[in-house]
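Support reply, case 0932

Customer input (verbatim):
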Amino acid sequence: MTLADLHPGDAATVTGYAADVPERVLELGLLPGTAVTLVRRAPLGDPLDLRVRGFHLSLRLAEARLVEVTPDA
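Our regenerated output:
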């Protein structure tokens, strides 16, 4: 499952990456073990508004498809 598969309100933990991710994604704090929550999607579905480490982060759908997550129970 990736960040792109989450629905608004879903919480998950980053577990890894599906492919080579841009260094920008790592610099934004999406490291393995990081808790994330999908707050909302833009009207056309791109970008995603995520809550990560106490701040909001906008991430393109193409980048979100590269970040693997495990949903929180």
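We compared this against your earlier run and they match. Two observations from our side: The domain at 3-71 is CATH 2.30.30.90 (SH3 type barrels.). Residues 12 and 72 are 5 Å apart (CA to CA). Please reopen the case if you see a mismatch on your end.
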